Amino acid sequence: MKVGVGLPTSTPGHDEGLLKAWAQRADELGFSSLGVVDRVGYDCVEPLSALTLAAGVTQRARLVTTILIGPLRPTEELAAQATALHRTSGGRLVLGLGIGARHDDYQAKGVDPSRRGRVLAEQLAALRIDASSPPMLVGGGGPAFLRAARFADGYVHGGGPPRAFATAAARARAAWCDAGRPGRPQLWGQGYFALGDAARGADYLRDYYAFTGAFAGKIAAANLTSPQAVKAFVRGYEDEGCDELVLFPTVSGLDQLERLAEAVAP
Amino acid sequence: MKVNILGAGPAGLYLAILLKKGDRRNQVRVVERNAPDATFGFGVVFSEGSLDELERADNESYVAITQSFASWNPLDIRYRGTTTRVRGNVFSGIARKELLRLLQERADRLGVEVEFQRDVSTLDRLLDADLVVGADGANSLTRRTYASQFAPQLGVHPAKYAWFGADFAFPVFTYIFKETRWGLFQAHCYPYERDRSTMVVLISEDTWRAAGLDEMTEQESLELTQEVFQDELGAGRRMLGNRSLWINFPWISCPSWHTGPVVILGDAAHTAHFSIGSGTKLALEDAIALARALLRRPDEREAALTEFEMERQPVVERLQEASRVSADYFASVQRYFSFEPLQFAYQLMTRTPRITHNNLAARDPDFVRRCETWFAGGDGLLVAAPPAFTPLKLGDVTLPNRIVLTGAGLTITPLVAVAPEGRIDPETPLVGDLPPATGAEVMVSLGHAGARGAMRPRRVGVDLPLPEPERWPLVSASARAYAPWTPVPSAADPDALIEPFVAAAKRVRELGYRLLELDFSRGYLVDSFLLEGRLDFPLELVKAVRAAWPEELPLGLACASDSLDALRAFKEAGVDLVRVLNGQRRWDERTDYGRMYGVAASDRVRNEIGLRTIAFGQITTIDEVNTILAAGRADLCILDPP
């Protein structure tokens, strides 16, 4: 299993300088990919812009969206941006798409949320038949498993303990088989960490996920706050057949990245 | 910490005990509407094997409770005049009244304040505490008071049930299936005292009305039910009532179990159908987890309550899911009334995916041995291979085993198109591409992609149209695209479509194949007619191919389970075998891809219509295959090793 790291695009105090330094250092430290998430109604760098910045200062790491809320963007514009980034980065983009978890993101963009499943399907079809498109992943639950099998190269899980990943991964594989795709889907996972500043990390997660109500407390409680917890989590995901795990910071600061590298070092 | 608990049932009392025992400084008060000795229902049952958690949490109450247990290990299934005994299932029963008395005593000794007969119609007077606990059951006032925060999902099971007692101890846990002129009566009976048993009786709503139970008094209903079960009770024995009303089981689940200082547990937060007998155990385990979290983090209430939920919710969700499957099984159990008693018992034991062939073999090796020899068809056999490795005879063809997988018992080809325009993609084989049959049993699946044709190869994706110049013209039942992004077909002339299938079937036979399947699934051409309710063409097609295919060789279909009427017609027309394939009939049809997800559909087709079936859908182990086959849910399984 490969281990990637998220970019600090929505943690408190993030800025362009940190983003570039983080991406560059993560690339040097050997993280396999740099991940970004997508939120409209939050202080957060636009994901493809963040990956474009990262592409400029890195050579090796793949650039992945886990996930980008596809229906919020016009397909032509998204296709043009993604293709351009994929080309300029030397083929390093992995485009993960989903419908996202929030209705208010749709309201903010003036998009009808009741049609989002259909819009995403048409968008995925359009992107997929364009030969210059990057590799693609689909995230989400329910219909997302077949969506991933129909249009993408794999599935990206939304986060949770290894057991939750295993359940979703089994469904993603079953959908792949049901759709008649040859081989196996790529399976990606994600998690959160705060090494050295657990309280601030928890505050950020509770704030970022406030829209989920009581669930925010659970996400904050599951934050990986010790090297042992990180190791156990990585091992758990590896055991469940994850291909690539992206760990996202919950505290801004390059020291977080160094500590994570130490924690995941073999 | 000051804790107010609403409800002196097992969950509330046990939590009070653990909190007081863990820290004597905790002020724990329990408020209960009823009197200490007022209780409804008879005995409660613990069907889960291990009560180790209770032993660790509070040894004193564990010893008291388990000393009062009636425990037994076999269970009896009484069906169609037979009794089948299955061993190795540890159950324990205790009178609910006795359980509460023991917990009350223990709470009292520890200094818990318990106030009985306090009518609580609002929570106002309970809120002056650090923690307010709703242990107030399925009809929880606490949950209803904070309904917007707990956001409960509520539902009811369609069947009716009522709790009764009996004035003697059934020798072991007993399931009774009793057919009456009004319909089926089922009783789940377990002893809990020397001369007392609980009988939970289940009936369908139709039976409830047909028997007139909807208009009877409690006493009349008791008398009628006793009459129904008089043979099983034995002469002179009586059933007992105690608020024995016919109700529907309430499904309750909540995404969150706490809000501010208020937390709910047990039935107040979640119900699990009584047919897996875990409600009381779940409630006690909730209390253990909640007490542990609170004692570990006395000054961080929010974190403790979050920890409690994170620990318990996954466990509860799994049990609730299993209990839903169990409830559905008992509601549709008549589907299996043609089964031999042995297989009927096997099916009952493995009704939820939690018990597999291997689990059952560990519990009662002799029962499984008898099932295996029966399955293998040998009355005189002492041992036989497990069901997965039992041959299957289909007409003149005998498959060496029941596993569908390249190189195993049976191989099914991908869709072989009957004509070039019926290809899914440019790489879809045509009948002319088939090699002559070799020894291995291969079933050729003939089909026509219809509106799902002219797509890119599946290594790229599915339902992705070819670039326009490379497409071929599509036909379907009518001029409707499969998906918003796929090309619009033209309406097919059904008469012209029969001949290519017949010619292809003949060619398949000439090549030496002995197994043929017609693909009527997935929104492909033939399915597009079925989706429009047009049965004529598919039926004509089956008849024409059946006439062209040797009588002694089996004819299969790949088909959804949605229309049993259509499947019945296909069976009449000579179909022998159905590969049950649901999903993808419309582009946006949803499939729940859980473990063994297609088996329920296979079960329905096999046992409602009486066709042999091939099950498909996240079947990943031989153990699962054995379980599906022995329970009569399918005749063959497509194995998808992980």
How does this model look, in words?
The complex is a heterodimer of chains A (266) and B (642). Chain A is an alpha/beta fold. Chain A has helices spanning 16-29, 47-57, 75-88, 103-109, 116-128, 144-151, 162-179, 198-208, 215-221, 227-239, 254-264; strands at residues 2-6, 33-36, 62-69, 93-98, 136-139, 154-156, 186-193, 244-249. In chain B, helix 19 (599-609) links the parallel strand 28 and strand 29. In chain B, helix 1 packs parallel to helix 10 (279-296), helix 10 (279-296) runs antiparallel to helix 11 and helix 13 (357-363) crosses helix 14 (365-375). In chain B, 49% of the residues are buried. The chains are: A alpha/beta (266), B alpha/beta (642).
How does the SSE layout of this entry go?
The complex is a heterodimer of chains A (266) and B (642).
Chain A (H helix, E strand, L loop, with lengths): L1 E5 L9 H14 L3 E4 L10 H11 L4 E8 L5 H14 L4 E6 L4 H7 L6 H13 L7 E4 L4 H8 L2 E3 L5 H18 L6 E8 L4 H11 L6 H7 L5 H13 L4 E6 L4 H11 L2
Parallel strand pairs in A: 1-2, 1-8, 2-3, 3-4, 4-5, 5-6, 6-7, 7-8
Chain B lengths: L1 E5 L3 H13 L4 E5 L11 E4 L5 H6 L1 H9 L2 E3 L2 E5 L2 E5 L4 E5 H15 L2 E3 L15 E4 L6 H5 L1 H4 L2 E14 L6 E8 L2 E11 L2 E8 L1 H6 L7 H11 L1 H4 L5 E2 L6 E7 L4 E2 L2 E3 L14 H18 L4 H31 L9 H9 L7 H7 L1 H11 L16 E3 L2 E3 L3 E2 L6 E2 L3 E2 L24 E6 L27 E2 L13 E2 L2 H17 L4 E5 L5 H7 L4 H13 L6 E5 L4 H9 L4 E4 L18 H11 L2 E4 L6 H9 L5 E3 L4
Parallel strand pairs in B: 1-2, 1-9, 2-8, 5-11, 9-17, 20-30, 21-23, 22-23, 23-26, 24-25, 26-27, 27-28, 28-29, 29-30
Antiparallel strand pairs in B: 3-7, 4-7, 5-6, 10-13, 10-14, 10-15, 11-12, 12-13, 16-17, 18-19
Helix pairs in contact in B: 1-4, 1-10, 3-4, 10-11, 13-14, 15-17
